[in-house]
Amino acid sequence: MIILGIETSCDETAASLVSEGTKILSSVISSQIGVHHPYGGVVPELASRKHIEAIDYVVNDAINQSGISLNRIDAVAVTQGPGLVGSLLVGFCFAKGFAYALDLPWIGINHLEGHINSVFLTDTPPPFPFVALLVSGGHTSIYHVKSHTESVLMGQTRDDAAGEAFDKVSKMLGLGYPGGVIIDRLAKQGNCQSIRFPRSYLDKSAFDFSFSGIKTSVNRYIQTHGDIYKEQVPDIVASFQEAVVDVLTYKIINAAKKKECRHIALVGGVAANSRLRARLMQDASAEGFHVHIPPHIPPMDLCGDNAAMIAATGYHYLIKGITSDINQDVYSRSINS
Ligand code: KG4
Ligand code: ZN
Known about the structure:
By secondary structure, the chain is α/β, with parallel strands linked by helices. 40% of the residues lie in helices and 20% in strands. The chain has 2 domains: 2-116 and 299-318, Nucleotidyltransferase, domain 5; 124-293, Nucleotidyltransferase, domain 5 (2-Layer Sandwich), CATH 3.30.420.40. The chain has helices at 33-36, 44-66, 85-102, 111-117, 162-172, 179-187, 212-224, 233-259, 274-286, 308-318, and strands at residues 2-7, 12-19, 23-31, 75-81, 106-110, 130-135, 140-147, 150-156, 263-267, 290-292, 296-297, 300-301. 50% of the residues are buried. It binds 5'-O-[(R)-(carboxyoxy)(hydroxy)phosphoryl]adenosine and zinc ion.
């Protein structure tokens, strides 16, 4: 079964063709970073307009690069939510129209479920059940994953998402957008032990997170160190990153212990973070766990938003005969995520 996936939940217009839910035939991602960069964050109104300009070309590119003719596409999978409503609507309406015109079944997919399924696009996917740490710009959650279509939420952030904290700290330091990538790069030049920012574990045996405190601590550090802080930026970002990584790593390993799972997945945009990948690999392996992280090797980036993960998830619904109805609408927030 060959599925066309479409993803437009935030600032990436993406399309992909995936065969049997595992084999990527093509994956095209058109990023809007240049559009939002001057504003220091995503401007929803601009994002929707840019999706409208890009969607037709991106889908065409994905089809052409796959070498698959239109009549070999079996179904369409598209992100239904959560995300920016105006952005979601562009991909959603395009997918409905595409499916209707070619008389194909189609299915609306939860973006978060898409991220979780991104580990099945790797050569060594985890066996079920496993625990997954989903870290993105809007979510930081831990799931007990029982099948491709069934994940139980174990805990989530009570305030900022991890990616949001990276973006806000970057903005505070005048480093720009997108913050995660910039901090990841700059932190390599700093000493991660130089400043002791607080680690917020909340209840150490539970799986909720809080990242607003660390953001405030970084801000207080900047305010109380006058202009000297400007010479310490690599140390500040390395120390901030280490504090976030400490909490994320501790909680997901603890979740694996609690659920007696030997396999851990790390997914979402922040899974691209080099320090988080290295630390989780190191700490979890030392305790006998197997870690699964999607590749982040441009142009094949399966950590950030992409449409291959949406097509792969769609496959598992479609083979069960589950499809969406033409009257379906997008949603900005998940009910249980
Ligand atoms: O999954 P994603 O592409 O979009 C959402 O669904 O939110 O995640 C985007 C988030 C942004 O906050 C971005 O700063 C963060 O992922 N991010 C990173 C890195 N690359 C992207 N955070 C830390 N280190 C990175 N290398
Ligand atoms: Zn995402």
